[in-house]
Amino acid sequence: MKTKKGPWIPTLKPLLGAVAFLFCAFTERETSFPAVATKDKMNGVNFVSPLWPTQKDMIFPLQRIGANWVALTPFAFMKPGHTTVEYDVQRNWWGDTPAGLRHNARCARKNRLKILLKPHFWVTDQGWPGDFDLPSDAWPVWEQNYEAFILQMARLAEAQQIEMFCIGTEFKIAVRKRKVFWEGLIAKVRKVYSGKLTYASNWDNYKHVPFWSDLDYMGVNAYFPLQNDSTPDVEVMLKKWQPWVKQMKNVSEQTGKPIIFTEFGYRSIHKAAWKQWEVEGVSSHKDVNLEAQNQAYEALFRAVWKQPWLAGGFLWKWWPEDARAGGTDHSNYTPQHKPVEKIIRKWYQSKSSG
Known about the structure:
8 helices, single chain
């Protein structure tokens, strides 16, 4: 149907333009955040809890790669279909215990490292907590137990003046099903802990976390599959990174929250940059490929480290007995005493404005 033209139509154009401008400006204020320069990134490691007190002063070598943050990663234990959350039990290594965490926090302070306290969860005979699920009537009991553990950790983080706390790690199903619980938990943590908050989501699930707006950072465990070759190529991986970079940028802008890689890293093994969970069970001294690890790290840093929406990350992982960890005959994740240390140090010590 044709519309009758009149002299009033052109006069609306400036008004509509002004409204659009104000709307966009308001939206930008609501969702934007200061860009994070390369020199200000969180250059972190996930620190493996010491097994015994005799390993208790092993954070010092982190200076070798230029790290400025360390993630302490105590484990709690669960069973499939059960509502219990077990912590500070015989299974825990010394570094997981409250005493061990307090000691390692003090040790980090001596070495001028900031701290992320990032509890992990091990499901018996399952491992990954992403598949953890319960009947509808069992969730409230699990939530009470989980909340008690997290608030215990949050209080410890507050007492030790730990800069950032992670409320959970890779609970793919629980996050999708129990949104109200997580929102209430965040509010309760805020009452006992004054630092920054994040949640560590798996790479394939971070878009679907419903409570990013209640946190300070979006945490992504960045195990994106990139290239299915024994020794991946940097230039190929840079192209493979681009869709993920675009996606993360968009989600960060939509939520108004910067992203941190709560975990990232690659094994020194064949197909290091492909589906990393497929090589998790391979022996630490089999299929050693140091160049695959080098290439994968270099591609990650070049693709994302200067992105303004990325606040930094925590490589996976660093063992406490440094002299005995890693080495050129070792195919697991740690970069210790491998050529990739030089690549990490180059980026971690970069003073570029980004």
